[in-house]
């Protein structure tokens, strides 16, 4: 009846607070909402009868203290804004801490809150919505049906262990990529090895649970159906990727094969995922090189030396690369397409300019152009011409192929007219560049240098940079310094 459940404090002030329970229902569950509400209150009643457990409070307190003392750095603007908000709700001694740390164990207060979670003090709002540090293992791609089988596979693996890991401050995901699937683990390193072992044990000894398969299949299908409710600019970005990538399955192709896939098909498909395998790993954080090598060796042993259907390495000819279509210089390409949501009055333009393949000099020139032009583009196209609320000029990187892209969403102009305005802006800005004073140009160069020299704010940002180099196959880990 349900795909997921979350609960916790939502809106709050000095006088009141709401405790929210969000249950994501399946199609079958929507016909049993009253029973689901009844089960929810039955469970809350059980909690009231059991009483308050101090060991739960102690666990929450320990985890909260760890999160507070080892939290990542955040941008200064966000930090100041958070503290300013805390000043309205907390005494001065708690401005930095706010509600991050539990105070003292008070079973009477906790029980009082539990006693309030009854039907008479509740509001239920049925909402039916129809729309809107990394490890990598690659495997040989077959056809679109295989991708849909994989999505069900990864969802079945994820549900097993995710909750308890998240409670302890460990998070992981399994995502399909263009050439295989990727396992990502972040969080505290103390139990990371155990979580990694659990995940790969589930992958190697994968079993299909038929009762969960139908629920996950329904969820995957809805995700594809809901694509039509995404904003037009998001759909335009998808179509650009569809045109540029040498081989990319279309969403309607996925929709065609999903209904045909059954649990037995997934069970037969699972061994193929790791029958021949190549994997890449990236490890960062509070871990020695010896510990990192041990993690990699464990993955190798799980995949290649396991007792159940051990994997074999990929043949050299089976190593897959994401290939990007090269656009002819001086040629304009157009791909007009009707919006999928007839009720959305917006139009969108994605204007893409392709450059060379990961040339350091061209990369820097592109970044300097975007840095110099993005404010002028926003001012001209958004503020003066008022084409729409979404007006963006930014870099684009497709597996090492660099480019610039304009993204505009508008209710007043159609895509053809938007494209004319972008071309007009480019001609205008070219004239501005020729007339740009030397000191203004040097100021832009200095700003770009300062951006390059800026250190990564946290481990997540640093890891994203290095993993992008690995994933794209460029491996320029000193890119910032060289550029």
UniProtKB/TrEMBL annotation:
It holds the Pfam family PqqF-like_C_4. GO terms for biological process: peptide catabolic process; proteolysis involved in protein catabolic process. Its cofactor is Zn(2+). GO terms for molecular function: metal ion binding; metalloendopeptidase activity. SUPFAM superfamilies: LuxS/MPP-like metallohydrolase (SSF63411). The keyword Nucleotide-binding does not apply. One of its GO terms (cellular component) is cytosol. PANTHER family: INSULIN-DEGRADING ENZYME-RELATED (PTHR43690:SF18), NARDILYSIN (PTHR43690). Residues 374-467 form the Coenzyme PQQ synthesis protein F-like C-terminal lobe domain. Keywords: Metal-binding. Residues 68-123, 159-256 form the Peptidase M16 middle/third domain. This is Insulin-degrading enzyme. InterPro entries: Metalloenz_LuxS/M16, Peptidase_M16, Peptidase_M16_M, PqqF-like_C_4. The keyword Metal-binding applies. It comes from the Eukaryota.
